[in-house]
Write a structure and sequence with these properties.
The complex is a heterodimer of chains A (164) and B (102). Chain A is an alpha/beta fold and 164 residues long. Chain A contains 9 helices and 5 strands. Chain A has a 5-stranded parallel β-sheet with strand order 3-2-1-4-5. In chain A, helix 6 links the parallel strand 4 and strand 5. Chain A is globular. Chain A starts with a strand and ends with a helix. The relative contact order of chain A is 0.18. Chain B is mostly helical. The termini of chain B are far apart. Classes of the chains: A alpha/beta (164), B mainly alpha (102). At the A-B interface, helix 1, helix 3, helix 5, helix 6 and strand 5 of A face helix 3, helix 4 and helix 5 of B.
Chain lengths: 164, 102
């Protein structure tokens, strides 16, 4: 399984505090345009996340060039468009991590690839013992300000259901 | 950020708005055209955030149009109390997909 992340997925999982653990546990790939969006542009604007994400990406995440790959942009940004272009070449069983409502609508409508929201990714990481339960709870608390209340509630419920 | 192409758009506005733009320009030590562009930009920002909230455009694309970063979009949304993120239906799909991941 290959995990593909857009800028939204990268940023939210980093804010949850679990991006590095995920990248060390599973093969993660981002297109070069997502790196530009989340790291290069973020650094230009002095967002501290951007530098931290950059360090994690450089250490554990594959940055895939997308020059010459074709895709159709549907009110998507350059990173999302590049990610779609990457799908045919990235390998078997890709899963996309994103919480962007429009991007997920495109993925669902076009049945392009399965997706997971960052909060659900944290639950998966706990189920697969990539995170301990208390780490997963802390990660969901960290991500809480950045996701919809329902996403936090449902993920926390799913997490607690793992130990029942 | 990318250099963006510009376009001349002839625009008819009321005299009152024209005077208001002139007042704003004076207060902010700029010119009237800049004041009008700033108002237009603020309106575009508000409209784009609404489109992002409704899932009609991605946050990253909104950032590109406004010549901002995605971090700026998150910050502006949070400041205005706008909730971003997957819809209820999308979360259900996500949770189903999550159960299958090994």
């Amino acid at each position: 399984m290959v995990i593909l992340l857009d800028a939204d997925g990268l940023i939210k999982l980093h804010r949850a505090g679990v991006l590095a653990k995920l990248a060390q546990a599973r093969q993660c790939v981002i297109p070069d345009k997502v790196y530009q969006e989340a790291v290069t542009v973020g650094k230009e604007r002095h967002y501290p996340d951007a530098r931290e994400i950059g360090e994690i990406v450089q250490a554990w995440i594959t940055i895939q060039p997308t020059e010459g790959l074709e895709s159709v942009a549907l009110h998507l940004d350059a990173g999302e468009t590049a990610l779609l272009a990457l799908l045919p070449v990235v390998g078997d069983d890709p899963v996309i991590i994103s919480d962007d409502r429009h991007f997920l609508a495109v993925l669902a409508q076009q049945r392009i690839a399965p997706f997971m929201a960052p909060a659900d990714t944290i639950v998966v990481m706990a189920r697969l013992s990539i995170l301990a339960m208390d780490e997963a709870r802390e990660a969901l608390e960290n991500i809480r300000p950045h996701v919809r209340p329902g996403a936090y509630r449902e993920a926390m419920q799913d997490l607690e259901d793992l130990i029942r | 950020m990318n250099a963006m192409k510009s376009k001349v758009v002839p625009l008819r506005i009321t005299e009152e708005l024209d005077e208001l733009a002139a007042l704003s320009a004076k207060e902010h030590h700029t010119d009237k055209a800049t004041a009008l562009r700033q108002w237009l930009y603020l309106g575009a920002e508000r409209y784009l955030l609404k489109l992002v909230e409704e899932g009609r455009i991605s946050a990253g694309r909104a950032a590109e149009i406004l010549d901002l970063s995605i971090y700026d979009i998150y910050r502006i949304a949070q400041t205005r109390g706008i909730e971003l993120g997957a819809s209820d239906e999308q979360r259900q799909i996500s949770r189903e997909n999550a159960k299958k991941v090994q």
